[in-house]
Amino acid sequence: VQLQASGGGLVQPGGSLRLSCVASGFTLNLYNVLWFRQAPGKEHEGVSCISSRDDSTYYSDSATDRFTISRDNAKNAVYLQMDSLKPEDTAVYYCATDSPKHASCRRGLRNVSDFGHWGPGTLVTVSS
Predict the structure, then answer these.
(1) How far apart are CA 70 and CA 77, in angstroms?
(2) What is the rounded distance in angstroms from the CA atom of residue 42 to the CA atom of residue 40?
(3) What residue ranges in the chain does DSSP mark as E strands?
């Protein structure tokens, strides 16, 4: 039972990246899925979430109008399209499911620790 985030890299300000979160050993669309990040010296920050019930999407203030979360059930994956990237987006990005608390997306954006299952993150560096 694993979650693997990938797709990070070095990008210039204003550029784009698409992160992938692939699940193995379980069906990802049964869960709310949260993308969160951790910048150096900072706490975990919820970025975006997609609901298992109806694929409703939720974004932090910093991600609104720049990031887009989506699912591909055939690939057992969730994606985060990040556009208009800024240096302050530099962080390690993780994906997580709402296991075991079954927390809502709204709650997960406020309190990342309520989403208890995540795997290795992927580093995003935004720099010229």
Answers:
(1) 9
(2) 6
(3) 2-6, 9-11, 17-24, 33-38, 45-50, 57-59, 67-72, 77-82, 91-97, 117-118, 122-126
**Can you tell me which residue has the tokens 């992927």?**
122
Instruction: Report residue 124 as tokens.
Output: 């995003």
For 104, the token pair is 């809502």
The predicted structure's pLDDT at residue 100 = 87
Which of 103, 121, 100 is CA-nearest to residue 35? Answer: 121
Burial of 90 (0-12, 13-18, 19+ CB in 10 A): middle
Instruction: Please give the average pLDDT of every successive group of 10 residues along the chain, which has 128 residues.
Output: 95 98 95 97 97 96 97 97 98 95 93 93 97
Residues 122, 75, 101, CA angle at the centre, nearest 5°?
Answer: 65
Q: Whose structure tokens read 């208890």? A: 116
Residue found under tokens 């990005």: 93
Distances (CA, A) of 58 to 2, 46, 61, 62, 70: 23, 10, 10, 12, 11
